[in-house]
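User: Teach me something about this protein's shape.
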Amino acid sequence: MLTNQTPHQEPGEEATYAELDEAFSSVFGKLMGYATADWINVEISTAQIKVLFILHFGGTLTVNQLAEKLNIGAPTASHLVEKLVQAGFASRIDSTIDRRVIDVHLTEQGHALADRLSGVTHKWIIAKWVSQLSEDQRIDLGNSLRTLLTVIENNPE
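Assistant: First, the predicted structure itself:
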């Protein structure tokens, strides 16, 4: 479990919700700082990023399937895909099931961008921070995070 002490407290003093909120916000603010650089430097539209994420996390889809997921028309989805193809983030491949259908795949470059934008590639930062904790602190942190996750899952918004 996370210690209730902040660096400025004496043993036995409880951390207030405000102090815990500040610590939590600071840690995640640092993580978001790393991710922000990737978002600032991306040269594709928000709609193209949506397609990128759908393909990254959902796998290969047809243009029609993408259109359905985005609630847009197939011509618009096709245009978004074409922009990603031109940028080197996606490729169109004839379906092995039906030659009239085109499957849309992300390229390695597309998957790498999706990883960066989703924060996946920043796991090493967390690992670096956590590696500096003692074994007991890592166990306490893990237990606290699992407990917090359970609370979150049981109390959606």
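Now, about its shape. The chain has a mean pLDDT of 86. Helices lie at 17-40, 46-58, 63-70, 74-86, 108-118, 123-131, 135-154. If you'd like, I can walk through any region in more detail.
User: That's plenty for now, thanks!
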